[in-house]
Amino acid sequence: MKILAVGMNYVAHCQELHANENLPKEPVIFMKPDSALLKDSKPFFIPDFSRQVDYETELVVRINRLGKNIAERFAHRYYNEVTVGIDFTARDLQNKLRAQGLPWEISKAFDNSAVLGTFVPLERVGDVNRIPFHLDINGKTVQEGNTQDMLFPVDKIIAYVSRFFTLKIGDLIYTGTPVGVGPVKIDDHLQGYIGEQKLLDFFVR
């Protein structure tokens, strides 16, 4: 199982963090190892190498069949479940590495940095291109998004990444975060929703 993630996939988020950069012409892809996965409502422990770990709430798609060089028009056949997840980012470390022109995987791919909610059938949430999702921290909504605002929709992402990587059953695609990212602190209670369905619920320690 591998975790593929998309960066800079919502215009407002691009402006939030990369105001001086052009919008991407193709999906921006990075990967996380399976050791990054955190599920089953287990707590997230802030790592000792970062002083600012930011939440990034995302729609997550799970691949359900083997595929390579998938045409966009057929991409919908390769998934039937979605959930909400958190792409945790060691922002201070990422900023330092970006400023030096160095790879920044360690700021994104560290242990337990990919939090995963409970998957639900796509038929329960409707059109994959119009899915609303949000994150509450301590009972307050801090981030909201809708897949209709993606620069690159789910099927285009699948077609693109399958040019480079064979997609296997169980692979996860984190599809990018909307505007509103921010830091977490010890004892924060994070709850993630698709529509009104709570699919993610855990604490920061």
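The above is record 1. Record 2 follows with the same two-line structure.
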Amino acid sequence: MGSLLPSNVEDEVLSLPRTTPLYYENPYLREFESGVLRVISLAENCYVVLEQTCFFPEGGGQLGDVGLLIGSAGKLRVVDTQAVDDVVVHVAVPVSGEVKEEAVHGSIDWDVRYNRMRHHTGSHVVFSSIKKVLGLEELMYMGVQIKEEVSRIDISYGKPISPSQLREIERLSNKVCLENRRVKIWSTTRDEAERTYGKRLGLTEVTPSGTVRVVEVEDWDVALCCGTHVTSTAEIGLIKVLDRFRLQKGVERIEFTAGETAYKYYDDSMETLTALAQLLQSSTREVMGRVGLLREEVDHLKEELEKVKGQLVEAKATELLGQGEAFGEFRLLAKELPEFSAEGLKRMASTLVKKDPYLVVILGSAVEKPCVIGAAGQKAVEKGINMAETIKEAARIIEGGGGGTAKIAQAGGRETSQLGKALHQYAEDVSRSLRTLLQ
């Protein structure tokens, strides 16, 4: 992956000597001293190249380190670290004074780095867990991103990974963490690594040739990797698989967290579960059973509520049935029913026209948002009344849209204050159609 540096910065640092990578010699090193080879000031940033550094430059999916560089006359805050070939460039912003080409003291943000180390080693553990659960020993990485809180792995897999498979991936990953397996890292040639590990490495066309770094989780995973890692799986702590989704055809993405962030996730979940148990007056182990019983009660109450709603509609329909303006054998009823929701209006309108096939009904309310419902009895429809055609102007008045069929139409909008005007307009348009029928 190319660096994220300005091209003129890249050009200027290419001629500089190779930076000694202290982060490989000792990934637990937090502070160091180094001479400064170059400081390039550009806009608000400084780009600093040192003789040696423990700041890890972005690579292998792991983000570049952050921290501080302190000289005799100034301090810089490193906000990113990038590499141009073998030259490490510290992207920094001034905190105070000025850092010149002299000796500096560097310190990385250890909390950020250590969490990324745990996540990076965790990604190797999770990847091999995925392979075992899916039964695909030759599964390949399609991408990886290592951050300090949430990381992700993209894999070449064309099917959805089920919740039960995700749980098993998480279970296996944490089992490996608890087993305190050693993490061994060494350099060799790509050819030698291939001879030793074969297809287990999951090599692709972008895998570098020549000298490579091998990272092996004892009896579990092996990969070529340029990131920083912990020395044992126990240091990862916990792993929590958070989610999976289809990134594109043939590629699944799995998000996970590790270490303290994973513990916080479990702790927050347990706190929520405990609070829920208290609300349900049960133990945490009984929550699922109590929720199941409550769902049954809710379903029963919904059924009872539907019955009551039906009875209310029937009673109101009986009350309204004799109302309305006569147009020959037909009648038109237009009324606002503020206590009814859109669904209630629809049920009411349908009930009324079933009871009287010569009736045309226009109802409105604004329980959730302004809504207008129009329905025509079968005889009115047969004579040519079309509720969908006549609702258009009413929909415009309430600043919304609507449609439906000749028999029943619905419009919803945003302008509640215009509901009365919309009902009146709909009634006028339907009246005009009814009068036309009588001619």
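The chain is about 40% helix and 30% strand.
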